[in-house]
Design a protein that fits this description.
The complex is a heterodimer of chains A (534) and B (168).
Chain A (H helix, E strand, L loop, with lengths): L15 H28 L4 H18 L2 H20 L1 H39 L1 H13 L3 H8 L3 E10 L5 E6 L8 H19 L9 E4 L2 E7 L3 E8 L4 H17 L1 H5 L12 H7 L1 E3 L2 H45 L3 E9 L2 E8 L6 H7 L7 E2 L2 E3 L5 H21 L1 E3 L9 H23 L3 E9 L6 H21 L7 E7 L9 H8 L1 E9 L10
Parallel strand pairs in A: 8-9, 8-10, 12-13
Antiparallel strand pairs in A: 1-2, 1-5, 1-6, 3-4, 4-5, 7-8, 11-14, 12-14
Helix pairs in contact in A: 3-4, 4-5, 5-6, 6-11, 8-10, 13-14, 14-15
Chain B lengths: L1 E8 L6 H6 L3 E2 L4 H5 L2 E10 L2 E10 L10 H4 L4 E7 L4 H17 L4 E6 L11 H9 L3 E4 L8 H12 L6
The chains are: A alpha+beta (534), B alpha/beta (168).
């Protein structure tokens, strides 16, 4: 490469070749280098071997710088995995089996441990010696069981929380109840992890198993172990399962939020100061979390029977009220009753008023209304009711008594005689008076009456004689009745002679009572039924 | 606050426990040594403007041997080997113990406390012995649990070493 002669430069009609020569003179070296590079690029082929050589190195470099490679490869790996599983699930299953088994076992074990604890708690709560003792105390002192439970209710208190570095046993952070002074938290922390080691060395439990709880008096230390840190809670009283769950959550959160600090820990605890609120979150003084449930239960235990008792009383009261009202209504509606005053005590009814003698017994009235009175008391003043039913009943009764009086009379004769003695004549006259009254009463009831005269003889003698004798006896009695003012139309002669004899135990007696005329009343057309007034 | 886990190992009777007894804050009784095989004490050491809290794990080999549990040594930041200056064999056993400890935690700052220097008449170690210790790369201090000589220096040196500030 030599420079062009200088005289050519000033020439006005230079050929394009000359211009090119000038350009070459000015930027020639650079142009050449560009051409070389261009050629180099074109000729260079990045071989697969080159990539294979550099790839691991490149990935390692990228990974150490930042997480961009991971993010970039993520979707591809996911797709590849999906494709692989789709093609042959067995292959992947076999590959991840060693990881999956322990993971599932651990998850199940954790769940079961929680479950067992909560079952234990429940059983202890309902069947504990305490529970029985409290019941006895409640029974003995007369204080309601609910109060006894509250008095003794176990207050649980999470007093301290230790966050302990798993490997060195050093205390990373500590939180305790405000009134508690724990100057040796770091020593306790180290000793706790030493004891963990001691237990592990002594009993050789399976991989990952740790001493989880131990109790001294009413203090329980509950330790949750994570891969890099332990969280130990010092609890006073009976902690419910929620405390354990919270402890696990807290430990997991700490592992997440302080992952790098935990990994890089060399003794400087300052980076863990922000974990203090998390630990403090585990502390709590709970007055009877369990007995809150219990109290609710106890409340129910009292409320339910109370409700039942109230309901029963209300029901009985309503029923009693109903019966009372029904009884009063029945008595008021009953003819011949006037209820003046009615009051009710405990199982005792007091009803005063007026009662027609013809009216039914009050108990009968109530029974008819379907009411069984508990203890019926009361005074009934007699009165005559003008209630049509009562009037009718009274008339009926009069009719009945007159009827009985008439039918109770009998006129006796000597053997073979139809003579009426003076004594008998008086009796017949009395019958006549009764018949007159009876007739009046029967008419008042809207009916009428007749008097049948049954004439009998004793069985001695011939039948024709007896028949005649019977007729004469009837006729003689009838005449006396007519003379006493009884209208003849009412008289119905019935000389049966020996046809329907009256019975007696001995023959003489039988003969005597059959030598007679007896009276039978027939009331007709009386509209009101018999009965009701006995 | 900086805390360091320091393990104290040594054959039975070398005075490990006595060595720390008067100079440390302790809440656990000596009984722990024979029961769980470890007793933990606290010693605060000033390094420059920093206070380092040394959690001292006093380890006792089971049955009085030097066979300490590796679990206890796990996570330690420093070690104190205690040798009895009146019993030469304790120095020989030091190396066995050291191998075991190395297997458990690897190479960590360590110091040898050659104890009982107050018992001058019974002293069995020669200068050569101590030089041998030094030659193995182990810093050593002569100490006396009785007089307190060398104790502070031992702890201070180890505290500095765990912070990477000790001069060999």
């Amino acid at each position: 490469m030599t420079p062009e002669p200088a005289e050519n430069v000033t020439n006005g009609e230079q050929s394009s070749a000359e211009f090119a020569a000038l350009r070459k003179l000015l930027i020639g070296p650079e142009q050449n280098r560009l051409d070389e590079l261009s050629h180099e690029l074109e000729s260079r082929e990045l071989t697969v071997e080159d990539v294979a050589d550099r790839l691991p190195e490149a990935i390692a470099l990228s990974g150490s710088r930042d997480e961009q490679l991971g993010r970039a490869l993520g979707p591809t790996i996911e797709t590849a995995l999906r494709e692989s599983i789709r093609r042959d699930p067995q292959e992947v299953a076999t590959a991840i089996f060693p990881v999956l088994g322990p993971a599932i076992r651990k998850a199940i074990a954790e769940t079961m441990a929680g479950l067992v604890r909560s079952i234990n708690n429940a059983v202890e709560q309902s069947l504990s010696v305490n529970g029985i003792r409290w019941r006895v105390e409640a029974w003995r002192t007369g204080i309601p069981y609910a109060e006894i439970v509250i008095k003794h209710a176990l207050v649980y208190r999470v007093e301290q929380a230790f966050l302990i570095h798993a490997e060195s046993g050093l205390l990373l952070e500590h939180a305790s109840a405000p009134d508690l002074d724990v100057p040796d938290a770091d020593l306790i922390s180290s000793m706790l992890s030493a004891i963990q080691d001691f237990v592990k060395d002594s009993f050789h439990p399976e991989e990952g198993a740790t001493l989880r709880t131990f109790s001294v008096g009413d203090h329980t230390v509950q330790v949750e172990a994570g891969p890099r840190a332990l969280l130990a809670l010092v609890i006073r009283g009976q902690a419910p399962t929620e405390v354990l769950r919270k402890e696990q959550d807290t430990l997991e959160t700490i592992h997440l939020e302080f992952a790098s600090q935990l990994a890089d820990f060399t003794g400087e605890t300052a980076p863990f100061a922000p974990a203090r609120p998390l630990l403090a979150g585990c502390l709590e003084t709970v007055l009877t979390t369990q007995s809150k449930k219990k109290r609710r239960l106890v409340w129910l235990r009292w409320a339910l029977p109370l409700f039942l008792v109230v309901a029963a009383i209300a029901f009985l009261w309503a029923r009693s009220n109903m019966r009372w009202n029904r009884a009063l209504a029945a008595l008021r509606a009953e003819p011949g009753y006037v209820v003046v005053d009615a009051s009710r005590g405990f199982r005792r009814w007091n009803i005063d008023g007026l009662k027609d003698p013809s009216a039914r017994d009050p108990r009968t009235v109530l029974a008819a209304a379907g009411v069984e009175p508990p203890n019926l008391a009361g005074r009934w003043q007699g009165f005559l009711s003008l209630d049509p039913a009562m009037v009718a009943a009274r008339a009926r009764r009069t009719v009945d008594s007159l009827e009985r009086a008439v039918e109770g009379e009998r006129v006796f004769f000597d053997a073979g005689s139809s003579e009426i003695s003076e004594l008998a004549r008086d009796r017949i006259r009395r019958v006549a008076i009764l018949v007159e009254q009876l007739d009046r009463e029967a008419r008042a009831l809207g009916g009428g009456m007749s008097l049948q005269l049954t004439g009998r003889t004793d069985p001695t003698g011939r039948d024709e004689t007896n028949q005649t004798l019977a007729q004469r006896r009837v006729q003689n009695v009838g005449e006396v009745l007519l003379a006493a003012g009884v209208t003849s139309s009412k008289l119905k002669p019935d000389p049966v002679a020996t046809a329907r004899p009256l019975e007696a135990t001995d023959a003489d007696q039988r003969a005597r009572i059959n030598r007679s005329v007896s009276f039978d009343v027939v009331v007709s057309g009386a509209t009101l039924p018999r009965g009701g007034t006995k | 606050m900086i805390q360091k886990k320091i393990c104290m190992v040594g054959v039975f009777g070398t005075g490990k426990t006595c060595l720390v007894q008067q100079f440390v804050h302790s809440i656990f009784s000596v009984k722990y040594l024979s029961t769980v095989g470890v007793k933990i004490d606290r010693k605060e050491v000033q390094v420059g403007d920093q206070t380092v809290t040394l959690m001292l794990w006093d380890l006792e080999g089971r049955d009085g041997t030097h066979d300490v549990s590796p679990s206890y040594i796990r996570g330690a930041h420093g070690l104190i080997y205690v040798v009895d200056g009146t019993r030469r064999e304790t120095l020989d056993q030091l190396h066995e113990i050291r191998e075991m400890v190395r297997g458990a935690v690897g190479e960590i700052p360590s110091v040898v406390a050659v104890n009982k220097i107050d018992l001058v008449e019974e002293w069995k170690l020669t200068d050569a012995d101590e030089a041998a210790v030094q030659s193995r790369g182990l810093q050593h201090f002569r100490t006396s649990a009785k007089t307190g000589a060398g104790v502070e220096e031992t702890f201070k040196w180890l505290a500095e070493a765990t912070l990477g500030k000790a001069e060999a």
